[in-house]
Design a protein that fits this description.
Largest sheet of chain B: 2 strands, antiparallel
Radius of gyration of chain C: 22 Å
Shape of chain B: elongated
Low-confidence stretches of chain C: 1-11, 467-471
Oligomer: heterotrimer
CATH topology of the largest domain in chain B: Cytochrome Bc1 Complex, Chain D, domain 2
Number of strands of chain C: 0
Number of domains of chain B: 2
Structural class of chain B: mainly alpha
Strand content of chain B: 5-15%
Number of helices of chain C: 17
Order of helices and strands of chain B: HHHHHEEH
Low-confidence stretches of chain B: none
CATH architecture of the largest domain in chain B: Orthogonal Bundle
Helix content of chain C: over 70%
Shape of chain C: globular
Number of helices of chain B: 6
Strand content of chain C: under 5%
Mean pLDDT of chain B: 90
Chains: A mainly alpha, B mainly alpha, C mainly alpha
Chain lengths: 223, 191, 478
């Protein structure tokens, strides 16, 4: 403690010039820290403590699951009784899929972005020739695409691995009946057939090959 | 003095117990599952991961899909519940805790178009009008229309085009997009 | 009074004066550095907050992008403002309660310089993109180790005080402070180990660290200040020693295990997460005990809050602690977490913890400590009141609407029929409210910084009647 015994010159200086009382006014106006009491606390507090313990142990028992490296244990609800396949509204389902898959490019109103993403409203390949929509969704499309209002030169990615036949049918049905379009619903079986017939095609179509392919499968589907 | 030591010992013991329980034990349990896996991380993916970290994407995008039935992650099409193998062993981890933007665990499958990503990174509002994502113009260079023949500028909507100029992605943008496209729950090497 | 050998001083007030004299330079240095980082952090906070609803604002500069400004805001507030000021307050409290002068003063001053430099370097690193990329640990490991080392040196001084103390019993605040000075270097050390090299394990370490940085460093400092200042200012003893004991060991036992509640639904093995959730719920025990202990101490003397700026901030902070901790316990439950995880609710929750509790507690502590260290008075009682109301109302305006917005956002996110972009646009009014609240908080900080500069520089006349001392406090005490 030798260091503490030494007074800094500054400290000494002020001590010399002013009265202790004055310098230490801040300290003198404090009351000392009182000793702690020793009360027991209210009963309800102990009740809360016991209940919390009980809940904690219950929770561990209920949700610990298994001591392993597995994640998501006891998260997924156990499979309920096999529900009879209810009549699903293709268009409503399609709207949901459109929102999560297509909307980023073709926009919520289906108008696309002029010069970047083609519109779906009133489009021939959607309303009159839905097979082309299905082909495009399966394998994608790239290459220069000349349309009335703009020329597009982007890439539409393939979704064959991501969407199943039902989902493709649903989303095509939706875009045929939204944005002012009017058209029939597409049967998932038809999508399955198209997928089968184009199974040998890899890579994206371009505006020529998609027309050729559509003509080819159109003939085969008609049989 | 004995009082001091009881205090110090108790404090350190409580800490050590939790440290073993929440850092060492998970390591022992989880590490063996990913040690031997070859994730096929290319140079582009590793660099892209670093850029993702550098730009702080994690503060708005999570990369962990919760299991079906817990939240609506599955119904939103963000993919199946994440597993420890999904992360390609790239650190720092990018699990994230915020979804100001959508989850990106499966973005490579959900949005496989590199073009879209370039345009979106350059100006998010050109693709998604209500987006609050920051733009990343420093990942791109704006050059004269006739410069660098053979390289096509990114597709920009009318409102965001710069007359007489084209916008080219830099290597950093290419790496970042390569990393984003690698985020695919069907990636080989991942179950 | 020609000699002031410590052992010769019997009078409480004189020995206190001696201790304060010794503490003055190092504690002032730490607090003033902290206030600087508070202002810098507030600026970053405003930038980040406004960028959330005006994303193109200053969007052309990479170093001001949201993804860099936000982590730097967190790091300067946590390792700059709260840690530095907290360390200063902790040293002063230990010196007072153990009746021993702060040792190693030149070293502490030295590490404070190094600490500030590390923060400056770290700030450039994050803005330039050299981030470690782990939330709460964005400073590169090398920078972080320097900061942890600085706190370790200050912690050694704290340990020396413990072993050289001049009192027999250890007051409850001492336990908390000693624990804090042990826990933070341990936490910082473990989190810097290069063994967490698989992503999910690192995520576990990340949230174990981040939650413990609050729970095992700032919370003990905040509670120690509350345990000291409440009885000190109102002049009544702490209600129960037994409850203090229970509260402290309960915190030490349960808080450590809380971190994984940030990872509910993540691919980490479920049983770790379940244990964390249970521990988070168990936190109710120490929180209720501490709340009862504080409430029963202050009950009947609430009017003293009107006259003492310290008590006003400290009581606000202590109440916030109870609120935020109970909220945290509820948030950890799966069914609640399902909604609020990944939303702005958690951001607001974190700010109740770090601001309404920790920061307000540090403000209160500074209002008590600085006049005693400087022998000067606060410039203006009106400005102190303004500071209190700006920050108190500011943080309420920040957190309450944002939590409401966070719940709505979470509910919308769990409804697959609402498109994701709608869950973004619906939060924008709440984000704008946050920016407004941020301006209020920053205005409060500017007032506080002005007052600190005035009192440290001892500018102006010393008031004849101390502004922060109201004679009515005497009456209110009884």
């Amino acid at each position: 403690m030798t260091e503490d015994n030494k007074k800094t010159p500054e400290f000494q200086d002020r001590e010399d010039n002013r009265s202790m009382q004055e310098i230490h006014s801040a300290a003198f106006r404090e009351s000392p820290l009182p000793e702690e009491g020793n009360e027991r606390g209210p009963i309800w507090m102990y009740a809360v403590i016991i209940l919390t313990f009980a809940f904690g142990f219950f929770y561990i028992g209920r949700y610990l699951g298994e001591v392993s490296d597995r994640a998501h244990v006891l998260f997924t609800a156990p499979p309920t009784e096999a529900v009879e396949e209810i009549e699903v509204d293709l268009i409503a389902e399609g709207q949901r899929i459109y929102g999560r898959v297509c909307q980023a490019c073709h926009q919520a109103n289906g108008q696309g972005i002029a010069g970047v993403f083609p519109t779906l409203a009133g489009t021939e390949w959607v309303v009159e020739q839905p097979d082309k929509s299905v082909l495009m969704i399966l394998n994608g499309l790239q290459g220069e695409l000349v349309r009335e209002r703009a020329t597009y030169n982007g890439v539409m990615p393939p979704f064959a691995r991501q969407l199943d036949d039902f989902e493709i049918a649903a989303v095509v049905s939706y875009i045929r009946n939204a944005f002012g379009n009017e058209g029939s619903e597409i049967d998932p079986d038809r999508v399955a057939r198209i997928r089968e017939l184009t199974a040998d095609i890899s890579g994206a179509y371009n505006p020529q090959t998609i027309v050729e392919t559509a003509a080819r499968i159109g003939a085969e589907l008609a049989e | 003095m004995i009082r001091n030591w009881i205090l110090l010992f108790g404090i350190v013991a409580m800490f050590a117990a939790a440290m073993v329980g929440l850092t060492i034990l998970p390591k022992i349990v989880v590490d063996p599952r990913v040690e031997e896996v070859d994730f096929g991380n290319t140079f582009e993916i590793v660099q892209g991961h670093a850029i993702y970290v550098r730009e702080g994407c994690i503060y708005c995008h999570s990369m962990q899909v919760r299991p079906e039935g817990f939240g609506a992650d599955f119904e939103r099409g963000w993919g199946r519940a994440s597993e420890v193998e999904d992360y390609r062993n790239l650190t720092p981890h990018l699990l994230g805790t915020m979804r100001t933007g959508p989850d990106l665990s499966n973005i490579g499958a959900r949005q496989p178009s590199a073009d879209w990503h370039y345009t979106h990174l350059f100006q998010p509002r050109s693709m998604l009008p209500g987006s609050i994502m920051p733009p990343y113009p420093w990942l791109f260079e704006v050059v004269n229309e006739d410069a660098r023949p053979g390289r096509q500028g990114i597709n920009l909507p009318e409102a965001y085009r710069i007359p007489g100029k084209k916008v080219l992605p830099t290597d950093e943008a290419r790496y970042l997009v390569a990393f984003l496209l690698s985020l695919n729950q069907e990636t080989p090497g991942v179950d | 009074m020609s000699t002031t050998h410590f052992s010769e001083i019997d009078s409480s007030a004189q020995s206190i004066r001696f201790l304060d004299e010794k503490a003055r330079n190092v504690v002032l240095f730490l607090i003033v550095s902290g206030v600087f980082w508070l202002l810098f952090g507030s600026l970053l906070a405003l930038l980040a907050s406004i960028k959330m609803h005006a994303p193109d604002w200053l969007g052309q500069w990479s170093f001001l992008t949201f993804g860099r400004v936000r982590p730097l805001h967190l790091n300067t507030m946590v390792y700059g403002w709260a840690s530095m000021t907290g360390a200063g307050v902790a040293l002063w409290l230990l010196s007072r309660m153990l009746r021993v002068a702060i040792p190693m003063r030149p070293y502490i001053a030295g590490v404070t310089v190094i600490w500030n430099l590390a923060l400056v370097v770290g700030s450039f690193q994050i803005l330039a993109g050299y981030t470690r990329g782990i939330e709460w640990l964005e400073f590169p490991v090398s920078t972080m180790i320097v900061i942890v080392w600085c706190i370790l040196v200050i912690g050694i001084a704290a340990m020396l005080m413990l072993f050289n103390r001049n009192v027999q019993t250890l007051y409850v605040s001492v336990w908390y402070l000693i624990a804090a000075f042990l826990w933070l270097p341990l936490l910082g050390g473990v989190s810097s180990l290069p063994i967490f090299n698989t992503p999910t394990v690192q995520a576990g370490m990340n949230w174990w660290f981040a939650h413990n940085a609050l729970g095992l460093w700032f919370t003990p400092i905040g509670l120690a200040a509350a345990y000291y200042f409440i009885p000190k200012v109102i002049g009544r003893p702490i209600y129960s020693y037994g409850l203090s004991l229970l509260g402290f060991w309960g915190l030490a036992l349960f808080y450590n295990w809380n971190g994984f509640h940030h990872l509910i639904g993540s691919p980490l093995p479920t049983w770790f997460i379940t244990i964390s959730i249970a521990a988070s719920v168990m936190m109710i025990i120490p929180v209720i005990v501490v709340a009862v202990n504080h409430h029963m101490t202050i009950v009947g003397s609430f009017s003293a809050v009107k006259y003492s700026p310290t008590l006003r901030f400290v009581v606000f902070a202590a109440m916030s602690y109870t609120f935020v901790s109970l909220q945290g316990s509820i948030q950890a439950l799966r069914s609640v977490n399902e909604v609020i995880h990944f939303t702005h609710f958690v951001v607001a929750h974190a700010h109740i913890g770090m601001y309404a509790f920790v920061t307000m507690m540090l403000f209160g502590s500074c209002y008590y400590i600085l006049p005693r260290l400087t022998n000067w008075e606060w410039q203006s009682g009106k400005l102190i009141k303004l500071h209190f109301w700006l920050t108190a109302l500011g943080i309420i305006l920040y957190t309450f609407p944002l939590q409401v917005g966070g719940v709505l956002q979470g509910l919308a996110m769990n409804n697959p029929d609402i498109t994701f972009s709608d869950t973004v646009t619906m939060t924008i009014p709440y984000l704008i409210t946050r920016s407004v609240a941020g301006v209020m908080l920053t205005a409060g900080h500017l007032i506080f910084a002005y007052l600190v500069i005035r009192i440290v520089a001892r500018v102006g006349l010393r008031p004849a009647v101390p502004e922060s001392w109201n004679p009515k406090l005497e009456e209110a005490r009884s």
